[in-house]
Fold:
Amino acid sequence: MKKTVFILCLASIVMSCGGITKRAADIKVSEIKSACDCINSIDIVLNETLSIIDKFKTEEAIEADADAKKQMQILESKFTEIDNHCGQTLGIKSEDSEKCENFKSIKEKLEKIEAVL
Structure:
């Protein structure tokens, strides 16, 4: 998979949202209200992305597996939806997110993802 909008948007906002949601599919973007909600939501998406990367190890292996490829596309779409909501709708900036608990781990996860994709 090429470094797509998923990686570019992630690097630009570096956020996630959260609380009790454990799966990207469960995230209701309309319920995201704060910078830390954004950070926690993105963290969930990145955790699922890393889970796929850990299983398949390479971009080529992910591309070769129809289910993994589809799941990565779903995660990219969810990330973009969160990114647009947080950045455009809520007007949250990266500096707003730096005080959030998961901010640092998001940066680390991004590095892992970029190393493979």
Q: What stands out?
A: The chain has one domain: 5-11+33-116. Helices lie at 5-13, 35-56, 59-64, 66-89, 94-97, 103-116. Residues 17 and 40 are 3 Å apart (CA to CA).
